[in-house]
Write a structure and sequence with these properties.
Strand content of chain B: 15-25%
Low-confidence stretches of chain A: 324-329
Pfam family, one (chains B, D): NifU_N
Strand order of the largest sheet of chain B: 1-2-3
Largest interface: A-C, 78 and 78 residues
Protein name (chains B, D): Nitrogen fixation protein NifU
Radius of gyration of chain A: 22 Å
Number of domains of chain A: 2
Largest sheet of chain A: 7 strands, mixed
Shape of chain B: globular
Number of helices of chain B: 5
CATH architecture of the largest domain in chain A: 3-Layer(aba) Sandwich
Structural class of chain A: alpha/beta
Strand order of the largest sheet of chain A: 2-8-7-6-5-3-4
CATH architecture of chain B: Alpha-Beta Complex
Order of helices and strands of chain A: EHHHEHEHEHEHEEEHHEEHEHHEHH
CATH topology of chain B: Sufe protein. Chain: A
Distance between the termini of chain B: 23 Å
InterPro entries (chains B, D): NIF_FeS_clus_asmbl_NifU-like (IPR017787), NIF_FeS_clus_asmbl_NifU_N (IPR002871)
Number of strands of chain A: 12
Oligomer: heterotetramer
CATH class of chain B: Alpha Beta
Low-confidence stretches of chain B: 136-145
Bound molecules: pyridoxal-5'-phosphate
Structural class of chain B: alpha+beta
Strand content of chain A: 5-15%
Number of helices of chain A: 14
Mean pLDDT of chain B: 90
CATH topology of the largest domain in chain A: Aspartate Aminotransferase, domain 2
Shape of chain A: globular
Helix content of chain B: 25-40%
Largest sheet of chain B: 3 strands, antiparallel
Domain NIF system FeS cluster assembly NifU N-terminal (chains B, D): 1-122
GO molecular function (chains B, D): iron ion binding; iron-sulfur cluster binding
């Protein structure tokens, strides 16, 4: 294959040409600070307003409930730390899960060092949060439940509506890290009883360095980034107008194409999964079979190690990842794969392929062939495989 | 991330395989940490390493350091092989990223483990060779922020 | 004038075409996450490294001391809050000034609500921090001195070297908000004994939504934004590669053109200042006459109000601001103008003109004519002026 | 930020100026807050406002509301002028940004103050008119985060 086959859309996505187009005038021409008095810059305010409306609409939210941030990580930090701070009178207990993104986990760990208590609820072997455990974890002092909408590694979609209802019944705020789900799955903050929701531009063919936090009207959360009066005095810093405009455009496109895109991705994904499972021995699919993102496939190949696999795939022009992009430079196996019960050595042999509707069936077939070849080659070099075969 | 030399040894690893009835075999590392190396040595009566093979479960650097380590000891005497340090392996590869330095240590250990096995099988003692740990648990934590 | 005369470069600047050029490939082509294993994305790491080196070089710092953030505001929040946290064993006292940007002031106010004590040192009538007061404010518990390099409203450049020396002699960390100075003034972190320095891309013809914090090697500061291991585990969030590349390019250009640019701006600025002071009655120049940013002119026109002035200038195609952009929608007069001793009603009549080397002398002459006309018109409508004249 | 009507009244303010020996003059607001409005009324013996002028120190909205308020009371009786509320001024301007609503209140107060002055000068009492505050200190704080 001449063309690069990019199968790491959960890590980041290319910015769509229409999105770049939409952003371009705001760099050099319409560069003005939207809080300015002069008309030429004040007009930018309406561009920001339009993006905010597009996003709010995609969530069934009010525009005034959308606050732009610098990305999913900042949104997660804000949601969790400032809920903790604003509701510390009520309690100091937070419930989350073992499979959250580090943006949530490390934020919770930070809070644990500052007098808060955090329960990390387990997930089942498919990566679905255990609702009974979650319910049992609730205390009178619980102020927040934070459960991601869909997992970035194994693609499992959580029973968000049920969790929202549990939170609501118990008068607890509910935050969801929807960085992987927003623009890929239909979300309605009211139907799902979501109080806080994080999302990021670059996961849906929008720009990097822009995200938002949905904050339900009436919540007492204050600023996390203090300074100027931007974002209704709740998020300081000169508005990143080009990125906001680009994010708005990306959301518009994502919403418009969602059904068609999901359909195509599902077809590719299911073909990929069924063929890998059928044609490669000693492999397992990670994540839920049905309740998973339409573009996510995650496998563990026994006896081999992920990074080697990735480099060999790269040599065949296939871009993929092992666990999440953030940790792929590290030696520890993914906390998500451990949480669904994989032993370390199997977790090490994991491969995440995250598709887009830009991928063709021919490419998927090529990928399957290459994976088979490479897995075979790596196994032939593996002392673990040698031992296994000799034990037969 | 990796130097051209590392990539070359990863793409075309030298001396992959097994040696039947090897003079010495050493396996180090553990699957939990994601690296296992096994080295087979064929040593003749003059204590010269006639052949060497390896198998590795691990990252790109683990494969490349195994490959380079086997190249560095091939044709050498046992004493010369013992003197091949992880630093020598790294240098021969034009360096490794800091997080991957442990792979070169593993390669050094694997050679030592194979030599130890050879010494044990032959009831000899090799000067300067200590019983290798099964696992080089040099799992140093990165500074946490 | 047909062309818009943009005199609000302290609020934000247009992105230079070369900068947009440098960024463009990173949106659609080289979009990959730099932490990925595959080469196509790993290459982006070197683009980020190059930008980091350019910036470090501009400051006399090490590349490893530069941490990218989402802007000046985040950098200020990080520097101050995490110094407070990391050094809370040593003490709980911070010294800053009355004329800091809200990103520093509101952060300090936040800390005051959390058990820290803050001294806000006064400035003199030129906006220069009172060094004797600053020295007297030092306590055994003082952990940080935060003084801006140059003021965003009145342009006064602070005696940063002296302050750095005071901090050093007393074993206190020194942070400077250099958002207005970086790229406009020569800065050497070692010569000036700066431990922490904030800067922002969009003030030097770079993109919005990107900034950095310089953290001197060895400081114990931890992350402010928790999550993935980006920026040597100190600032989480997928790297905003296009913006980082653009920031790097902007710094490269700013450094290369600094001397020439300052020379041109100084000529324009001094012409503007001398003519306004000579030709308009009842006006004062705010900020230091000499120790001021080469592109900043700030006037107070008695008897008139700033917003009206701005709208009328806008009608003549002149973009300017009154106080800082962030607060220009608000009714309170600028805290900076009050701090240099202006009465409220005079502070209300302030006008900030911040130039660029893109401005011509003809445009400056046009601006002077228009200011004269407009000030006259507004005074003819002003009851304050009426009273003043009748009292003569 | 502002509607076209506001901009029109700002760019071409109606009735700017002073009236010598006015029947009533009212000044409200204070320089500290950045808004001062002064209204001059010329009221004839039939209690009809024959002429009205204003001077304003303040923002765009302050100028526009002054201008609009003078338009709304011109030619009206004192009682009709008294009935001109800040809401009427805002509506006539097609609305104001929330932070600028106080300007319309100031305009209403300025009319009342001028009427009060007229009443005092003539020793009459105008039904429904209360002594105006010098300053409408409706300095409501924005919610702080
Ligand atoms: C589930 C999840 N949460 C949070 C993040 C962080 O988003 P960002 O990198 O945009 O800050 C990511 C992606 O990296 C993610 O997948
Ligand atoms: C002195 C100063 N500090 C901080 C900031 C905040 O920078 P940013 O808007 O990029 O977050 C600004 C500009 O708004 C500034 O002028």
């Amino acid at each position: 294959m001449d063309r690069k086959i990019y199968l790491d859309n959960a890590a980041t996505t290319p910015v769509k040409p229409e999105v770049v187009e939409a952003m371009l005038p705001y760099f050099t021409e319409r560069f003005g600070n939207p809080s300015s008095v002069y008309e030429f810059a004040a007009q930018n305010k309406s561009a920001v307003t339009a993006a905010r409306e597009t996003i709010a609409h995609a969530l069934g939210a009010e525009p005034a409930e959308i606050y732009f941030t610098a990305g999913g990580t900042e949104s997660d930090n804000w949601a969790i730390k400032e809920t903790a701070e604003a509701y510390s009178q009520k309690g100091n207990h937070i419930i989350t899960t073992k499979i959250e993104h580090h943006a949530v986990l490390h934020t919770c760990e930070y809070l644990e060092k500052h007098g808060y208590e955090v329960t990390y609820v387990n997930v089942d072997e498919n990566g679905v949060v255990k609702l009974d455990e979650l319910k049992k974890a609730i205390r009178p002092t619980t102020i927040l439940i934070s459960v991601m909408f869909a997992n970035n590694e194994i693609g499992t979609i959580q029973p968000i509506k049920e969790i929202g209802e549990i939170a609501k019944e118990n008068g607890i705020l509910f935050h969801t890290d929807a960085v992987q789900a927003f623009g890929h799955v239909k979300i309605d903050v009211n139907e799902y009883h979501i109080d806080l929701l994080s999302a990021s531009g670059h996961k849906i063919n929008g720009p990097k360095g822009i995200g938002f936090l949905y904050i339900r009207k009436g919540l007492k959360l204050r600023s996390y980034i203090h300074g100027g009066a931007q974002e209704r005095s709740r998020r300081a810093g000169t508005e990143n107008v080009p990125a906001i405009v680009g994010f708005g455009k990306a959301v518009e496109l994502a919403v418009a194409t969602m059904d068609e895109r999901m359909k195509k991705e599902l077809e590719l994904r299911d073909y990929l999964i069924s063929h890998i499972l059928a044609e490669v021995p000693y492999v397992r699919l990670n994540g839920h079979q049905k309740e998973r993102l339409s573009n996510n496939a995650n496998f563990s190949f026994q006896f081999i190690e992920g990074e080697s696999l990735l480099i060999m795939l790269d040599m065949e022009n296939i871009c993929a990842s092992s666990g999440s992009a953030c940790t792929s430079g590290s030696l520890d196996p993914s906390h998500v794969l451990l949480a669904i019960g994989l032993p370390h050595e199997i977790a090490h042999g994991s491969l995440r392929l995250t598709l887009s509707d830009d991928i063709t069936m021919d490419e998927i077939k090529y990928v399957i062939v290459k994976i088979k070849e490479i897995v075979e080659k790596l196994r032939s070099m593996s002392p673990l495989y040698e031992d296994f075969i000799k034990r037969q | 991330m990796y130097t051209e030399k590392v990539m070359d040894h990863f793409k075309n690893p030298r001396n992959v395989g097994e040696i039947e009835n090897a003079s010495g075999v050493g396996t180090v590392g553990n699957a939990k940490c994601g690296d296992i190396m096994r080295i087979y040595l064929d040593i003749d009566e003059n204590e010269i390493i006639q052949d060497v093979k390896f198998k590795t479960f691990g990252c790109g650097a683990a494969v490349a350091t195994s490959s380079m380590a086997t190249e560095l000891v091939k044709g050498k005497t046992v004493q010369e092989a013992l003197a091949v340090t992880n630093k020598a392996v790294m240098e021969a590869l034009d360096g490794l990223p800091p997080v991957k330095v442990h792979c070169s240590l593993l390669a050094e250990e694997a050679i030592h483990a194979a030599l130890w096995d050879y010494a044990e099988k032959n009831g000899i003692k090799i000067d300067g060779l200590e019983k290798p740990k099964n696992d080089i648990s040099e799992h140093e934590e990165e500074e946490e922020y």
